[in-house]
Structure formats: C-alpha cells, structure tokens
Amino acid sequence: MSGTATATRLSSHSERRHADLRASAWFAGGSLLAGVAAVGLGTFAAAAVVAVALMVLTAMRPVVAVYVYLATLPFLAGIDRDRLLPFVRPNEALLVLLLAGVLAGAYLRYLRGDEVGLRVHRLDVPLGVFVLLSTLWPITWMLMRGDVPGSAELTALLPICKLTALLILIRATVRSDAQLLPLGRVIMWPAAAIAVVAVLQTLSFPPVVALLNTYWRPIGSDPSGVVDRGSTTLASSIATGDYIVIALALLVAMIVRDLVGRREQMAVGLTLTAGTLAAGQFSTWASAAVVTAAMLYVYPRLRRRALRLLPALGVAVLVGLPAFVARLAEFGDSFGVPRSWLGRWDNLVNFYLPALGEFRWILGVSPNSVLQAPETWREVIYLEYGYLQLLWVGGVPLLAAFAWLSIELLRQARRMASLPEVVGAYASALWAAWWMVLLLSVIDIHLVLRGAGELLFTFIAITTGKSDDR
C-alpha cells in the first residue's frame, strides 16, 4: 500500500514538473512571438499581446507566475520608476500583472468548486504585525499629528507591500517539493548572470557599461560612476552583493543535499564567488563572512569540502579582485577611510539624528526616510542604517515587531534546516541570510533591498507554506 502511494505521489510530482516545463516553454514561445509582433504591430501592441498571454498562462498554471517574476527580477528591479513606466518599476508592474492572472484563475477554480485558500501559519502573526507597523501605522501616526501623507510617503510603502504580495503569491502557488528545485535554479542562474555583469562592469567592459548607463543608471547620477562598483542591473552594489550572497547560500544548501550536479556546482558557485568580490561593497564582504559562518555552523561537514575547493575558489577571487583592490585603495587617500563613510556619518549627525531627537524616535517620523538635500550638488539624502530606518518609519513598536519576527523566524528556519528534502535547503539559506540581516543592519539596510528582500520573503513563504506539512 505504501509503495503504491509513493509511486502515485512521484507520478504526480513528475506530471507537475512536466506541466511547469511546458508552461515555461509556452511563455518562451509567446515572448518570441511578441518579438515578431513588435516588428509588425509596434512595441505597445506587442506588450499588450504578451500581457494577455501571460495572464492566461498564470491563470492556468499559477506557479509559473513565481518562476517568471523571480527569473526577471534581477534584470527589471533596478530600472527606475518613470524610466519605462510611469510611477512604478517594471518588476512592480509585472508583479501586478502576474497577481491579476493568478487571482483570475483562482476565481474560476472557485466557481468550479475547487478548494481555494491559504493555510494560517504560526509565523503569520508576527509577520502580519510587522507588515501593519511598517505600512498602516506610519500613515496613521502622520494623520494623528496633523500631517497629510504625500506621494513620497505613499510610494515609500510600496516595497513592503510588494514583498507581502509576493509572499502570498508563493504561499498560494508553490504546492510541492517538486516545484522547489526548478525554483532554486530560477534564483541561482539569474544571480550568476548578474555576477558576470558585476565582473565585466568593474573591468570596464564597454558594451556592458554602455548598456547599464542606458537603462540601469539611477536618474541624475554620474555616468562615470558605473564602473566603480558592481551595481549591475539591480542599480545598486549593495543590493547586488546581497542577492548574490543569498543565492550562494541556497546553492551551498542544495549541494549538501546532492540536489545539483558537479558541473552546475562549479559553474554557478565560482561565478557567484567572483561576483561577491566584484560588488565592491564592504558590507557585502561582511555579509558573505556572516553567511559562510552560519552555513558552516549548520553543516560542519562543509569544512572539509571547502578545503578541497580552495584552488578553484582562488581563480574566482582573481576574477573579482579588481573591485576589491580598488575599494581597499580608498583607505590610502588623504581622508584615511573611504569618503562614502564620511558622507554617511555626516548625513547621520547633521540630518537624521536631529530629526529623531526629542523622543520622535519612540513612535516614528515618516514612512519616507529620503530627505531633500539643502546643497546644490545633490538632490536627496538617504538613511543608510537598518535599525535607525525601523525607528524612523515606525519607532519602537516597529523595532519590537522586527525583533519578535526575527526570533520566531530563526526558530522555524533552524528547525526545518535539518530536513533532508529541498525545503530544508531553503530553510537553512533563510536562517543564514536572516543572521546577515540582523548583524549587518547596524550599518546598512538589508531587509527591503531590491532583489534581496524578494529572496528573503520567498524563502519565508516556502518555509511556512505547503512544503512544511511534514
């Protein structure tokens, strides 16, 4: 009886996997058709064709929405709002489109009598409190003070709303372990692609630099600054670094479970390692150290395997070395430390700490932490400290909610990290990545960085979704 059930389950998983591959093939074919249509019908007409086809596809196979969004995420998230689309980034518009398709399909299945719903997980309570205190509370507090939220304040709420929507999408669509392995590849291979972009960018490869300056350079920034660090198509070196490090943690967790072949291990692993250095961020290298220590703690047997990989890792280090050396050279100039460090400290002391004074940090200041600069040589000032960002947005209540969420999340992820199935790989990568967030948020914002935030919430969704029925 047990053998029959196992065979039936494997057959079901195989059918789902083949269906997902067929759906992906349909999407690829539709994209090619749209390219041909763009020549004859025009760009907007072709985009409409793709949008309708994508909605139909995701209504039929909802999990494809997750594959499409994560596969395109590192290439679309760095394009500024108003550059291609008004008010939103392309990945945000894509997420809305995918959600519309999934919701339409769910409604049709509901009318047909199928079960449609989400299971409540114990982590949903602290997660829901954190989301409410990140979105509803800052706006409510502004209104209670007599301030009217403007477009900047409302736009500042989009990242956490987007991450929450992605979490719900994944919880509703990723139904089996058979879908998690291709999902891992959808995360790791695009991460390897942007790692290659980071290396070529820091080597000043002309075609890559020209392309990044065309679409992925922040509006108003200096074009010559594109070659300084590996900002890639995420248009942020710190976001690039976090994305690569988290993807590398997932790869290592899958290697431990023998879920990827040796060639894939070497190709993706060495590329991601080189990209970590090419990102050119001190916080990225610190993040890599934290994640490495966490993974070695969870999997002690990795220590022996890491020693055998040292020669190959040396090659990856040499490829990504130029950006590393360039950043270290900043300690040798007349300032003694990188100028960016001095600028961050100046912003903190002169702009943010005074605004948080007089106990305004207790209940928060504003959902938008970007300030207008009084100088003429720059337009805006950014708050670049993670825990201060929490106090700025939601005060002590939000900081306490983050602490509660972290305790429950680390407990859940650590328990599931011991599972031999693929879901255990996601849980261990989440455990390591969340420690990175906790430790590095002292000096940087990591939780809602573009790209990295999506990966974190993807892992949360997987470890709290259908796959932990066991």
User: Overall 3D geometry?
Assistant: globular
- Provide the low-confidence segments as ranges: 1-13, 36-40
The count of DSSP E runs of length 2 or more, i.e. the number of strands, is 2
The strands making up the biggest β-sheet line up spatially as 1-2
Average pLDDT reading: 84
Distance between the terminal alpha carbons, to the nearest Å?
19 Å
Counting DSSP H or I runs of 4 or more residues, the number of helices is 19
Q: What's the oligomerization state?
A: single chain
Main β-sheet description: 2 strands, antiparallel
Explain what you see.
This protein has helices at 2-41, 43-60, 63-76, 90-112, 124-144, 151-155, 158-173, 180-202, 206-216, 237-256, 262-278, 282-298, 302-308, 310-319, 321-329, 339-356, 386-416, 422-440, 452-463, and strands at residues 371-372, 380-381. By secondary structure, the chain is mostly helical. It has a domain at 13-117. The protein has a two-stranded antiparallel ribbon with strand order 1-2. Strand 1 and strand 2 form a beta hairpin. It is globular and about 65 Å long. The protein starts with a helix and ends in a 7-residue tail after the last helix. Mean pLDDT is 84; it is low at 1-13 and 36-40.
What keywords describe this structure?
two-stranded antiparallel ribbon, 19 helices, about 475 residues, 2 strands, disordered N terminus, mainly alpha
